[in-house]
Amino acid sequence: MSSYRRLLCCKCTAVAAAAAAAVLRPPSLPPSVARCFTTLREQSRVVPFRPSRVAVVAKTTRYEFEQQRYRYAGLSEEELKELLALKGSSYNGLLERHNIHTRNVEHIVHSLRNDGIDVQLVKRREYDEETVRWADAIISAGGDGTMLLAASKILEKSKPVIGVNTDPERSEGHLCLPVRYTYAFPVALQKLYRGEFRWQWRQRIRIYLEGTGVNLTPVDLHEQQLSLEQHSRAHLNLQEHKSAEVSGPYLLPIRALNEVFIGESLSSRASYYEISVDDGPWEKQKSSGLNVCTGTGSKAWSYNINKMAFQAVDEVLKIAKKQEHLNVSLDRKLIEEVTKAYNDSLLYSPEEPKMMFSIREPIANRVFSSSHQRGFSSKVCLRSRCWDACMVVDGGTSFEFNDGAIASIMMDTEDALCTVLLDE
């Protein structure tokens, strides 16, 4: 290779690397937001924490759900077992997982009471604002879904929430304490008592609704495995609470710890809306829906929407190599490193007061466009042009969001959720 060719190759490689770094590097925080972030870090310095009253929110296991589901039909336990077998589910397997969860919940409650702490054990459907007011701290006993439910009722910044994964073999538990504390919960309590932890302030999203097509009464999806027909019927049953128009922005009494998703209820139907990011110009879009997440949620659905597969990265790099005639060896290790670097760039700290929006499968033609498929923002506004759409908060609470409804999605550091990181 000539010296000129080698120089050109090096320059192309350097330019490509710089471009990749620019794409992967998240934008720096504005000074005002950075100051808020610093303040939250300072608030994380702690003193020992020993609550007097704790509410333990236990998940509904699949076994309990199936029991409740068919109890109204008058099925006996044997009939339930036969029905589950017909559906390809194992009755004994569900019962075993239920028993594991139950033992771990009992371990948590027993550990708290042994330390003289007043405990209130509630099931998911019994968990309400009164329980939150009573407790000094909330412990979610389940998985990430139970943690999201526990967080959804808490609006005050000073109420800590601690997640314990009660079935680590079947539940991921990203939002929960490390798995070893499931079986040794007294160790976790001792660390709290000795101050061997720091507060982690997980930022959350607040939502304002206004306009027409708004129903301020939500459908709770946590306890229901709803089909599309059931989901639509649930919203129709709330028509008596529906306001034809909400004149001013109404702050919903719920905060999103993971994400807010807006889209048509029928997944095969394109969602039609207008969007404005950070008070910019409105843009008409059609897509499979909009996801707006927090740093906590950047590891969840948002990550899976935006991540690149090894195969896609491999093909893109091969095209780049061919187009620029680059003398670069595209071995498996390099492709894996680039894939990992890109996917890691989609994640950011739960404590950073910024949101990431993602447009799922945007339709681009002469009428509709998508100038940015994803990006960081401090405010996202959406005006619905949908027929049967919903706005779903953390996968558990659904609001009707049809033609004329306007949502303003933003963050306020006062909404941060207080969680703990134990010293290791």
Automatic annotation (TrEMBL):
Keywords attached to this entry: ATP-binding, Kinase, Mitochondrion, NAD, NADP, Nucleotide-binding, Transferase
UniProt enzyme class: transferase
Reaction equation(s) it catalyzes: NAD(+) + ATP = ADP + NADP(+) + H(+)
UniProt main location, coarse: mitochondrion
EC number: 2.7.1.23
InterPro entries: ATP-NAD_kinase_N (IPR017438), ATP-NAD_kinase_PpnK-typ_C (IPR017437), NAD/diacylglycerol_kinase_sf (IPR016064), NADK (IPR002504), NADK2_mit (IPR012355)
Protein's GO biological process: NAD+ metabolic process; NADP+ biosynthetic process
Gene Ontology cellular component list: mitochondrion
GO molecular function per UniProt: ATP binding; NAD+ kinase activity; protein homodimerization activity
Subcellular location: Mitochondrion
Superkingdom, taxonomy of origin: Eukaryota
Record's subunit section: Homodimer.
Function: Mitochondrial NAD(+) kinase that phosphorylates NAD(+) to yield NADP(+). Can use both ATP or inorganic polyphosphate as the phosphoryl donor.
Family according to the record: Belongs to the NAD kinase family.
Protein name: NAD kinase 2, mitochondrial
